[in-house]
Amino acid sequence: MPEPGIGEWRRGLRRDLLIAGLSVAGAVVLTVGAFDGPAGLRWRLLGVAVVAAVAAGLVRTRPVTGVLVGGAAVLVDQVIGPSLATVLIYTQVLYDAGVHGPRRLARVLLWAGAMLTVAVTVLHLAGGRGQDAAVNGVLVALILIVPVTTGMSVREWRDRSAADRRHAEQVARLAAMDDRRAVAAERTRMARELHDVVANHLSVVAIHSTGALAAADPALRERALTVIRDHAVQGLAELRESIRVLRLDETALPGVEVGLDEVPALAERVRRTGLDVRVTTTGARRPLPIAVDMAAYRIVQESLTNAVKHGGDTVTLGITYGPGVLTVTVSNPVGVSSPDGSGAGLIGMRERASLLGGTFDAGAADGVFLVRVSLPTPKVSA
C-alpha cells in the first residue's frame, strides 16, 4: 500500500495531466476544427494554445511559473491571432493559481487584472470607441478577475472545511481520552472496592485457616473456624451488595452503603481473631456525607485487617469529629510482616482520602505503625 504522501502526489499528477490533456483537446477543436483562417496561422495558434495547456498543467505545483508561461502564451496569441482557445485555457490557469498558489500571488493577479481592465476601458474611451469600452472592460474582467476571485473563494471554503475537520478530529480525540480516563477511573474504583470487600475478609480467612490446620486444641480450632465462617459470611454479603450496586443504573452511588455505624460490629469481628481492639470516639457524632462515611469505614476496615496480618496483639482506633473534618487514627505495635502483602491496601486508603480532598499518612515509628486520615465533612442537607 503506497504511503499517504505518495498517493496524494499521484492523484495531483493525474489531475494535472488530465487538465493539460483536456486543454489540448479543446484547443484542437477551437483552432483546427473551428478556425477559418490560413492553415499556417491555425497551426501557430494551436502551438501557442498547447503552451498555455502546459502552463495549466504546471500551475498547481509551480504557480508562478504557470502564470508567467500562460501569460506569455496569451500575449503571443493576441499578437498573432487572437484565438479563443488560449484565452479560455488561461482562465483555468488563473483559477488554479487562486486555489493552489500563494495568497500573495492571488492578490497580485487581482491587482494586475483590475489595472488592465481599467487600462483597456480608458484606451477605448480615448480612442473614441466609447460604445465598445464597457463591453471590452467587462470581457477583460471576466477573463482576468473572475477566475482568480472564484479560485480564492474555493480555497477559502476548502481551508474552512479542513479546519472544521481538524477541529472535529480533535474533539473526537479529546472525547476518546475522556472515555479512557473515565473507564480507568471506574476500573480503579472497582478494584478498590473489590479489595476492600474481598481481600480483607480473605486475609483473615487465610490466617485463621492456617491456624486451624496447625491447632491441636479443639477449642482453638473451633474458635478459628468460627472466625473464618463469620468473615466468609460477611465478605459474601458485602460482595453481593457490591454486585448489586454495579448493576444499578444510578452511577452516582459511591459503592456499598456502609459507614461508621458499622464500626462496632467490625471491631467485634476483629476481636474474635484474638486481637484486642480499643475504640475511642471524640466529639459529637453527626451525620456525614455518604462518600465520607463509607470511605472512613473502608479505611478503618483496611487498617484493622493490616493489624491482624502484620501487627501485634493490640490495636487502637480513634475517631474524632472535629469542626468540618473527620479524623481517623489507627495504631498498633509493629509485628512480623506477612509474606503476602502487596501494598494495595495503603494505596486504596490514600486514593480514598485524596478523592475526597483529605490527607493520608501512614508509617512506623518507635515500634508503632500509625495510620492517620483526615477527611473534610461538608454539612449534610436535611
TrEMBL record:
<protein>
    <recommendedName>
        <fullName>histidine kinase</fullName>
        <ecNumber>2.7.13.3</ecNumber>
    </recommendedName>
</protein>
<dbReference type="InterPro" id="IPR050482">
    <property type="entry name" value="Sensor_HK_TwoCompSys"/>
</dbReference>
<dbReference type="InterPro" id="IPR011712">
    <property type="entry name" value="Sig_transdc_His_kin_sub3_dim/P"/>
</dbReference>
<feature type="domain" description="Signal transduction histidine kinase subgroup 3 dimerisation and phosphoacceptor">
    <location>
        <begin position="186"/>
        <end position="247"/>
    </location>
</feature>
<dbReference type="InterPro" id="IPR036890">
    <property type="entry name" value="HATPase_C_sf"/>
</dbReference>
<feature type="transmembrane region" description="Helical">
    <location>
        <begin position="41"/>
        <end position="59"/>
    </location>
</feature>
<feature type="transmembrane region" description="Helical">
    <location>
        <begin position="133"/>
        <end position="154"/>
    </location>
</feature>
<keyword id="KW-0547">Nucleotide-binding</keyword>
<keyword id="KW-0597">Phosphoprotein</keyword>
<keyword id="KW-0902">Two-component regulatory system</keyword>
<feature type="transmembrane region" description="Helical">
    <location>
        <begin position="17"/>
        <end position="35"/>
    </location>
</feature>
<dbReference type="GO" id="GO:0000155">
    <property type="term" value="F:phosphorelay sensor kinase activity"/>
</dbReference>
<feature type="transmembrane region" description="Helical">
    <location>
        <begin position="108"/>
        <end position="127"/>
    </location>
</feature>
<keyword id="KW-0472">Membrane</keyword>
<dbReference type="GO" id="GO:0016020">
    <property type="term" value="C:membrane"/>
</dbReference>
<keyword id="KW-1133">Transmembrane helix</keyword>
<keyword id="KW-0418">Kinase</keyword>
<dbReference type="GO" id="GO:0046983">
    <property type="term" value="F:protein dimerization activity"/>
</dbReference>
<keyword id="KW-0808">Transferase</keyword>
<dbReference type="GO" id="GO:0005524">
    <property type="term" value="F:ATP binding"/>
</dbReference>
<dbReference type="Pfam" id="PF07730">
    <property type="entry name" value="HisKA_3"/>
</dbReference>
<keyword id="KW-0067">ATP-binding</keyword>
<keyword id="KW-0812">Transmembrane</keyword>
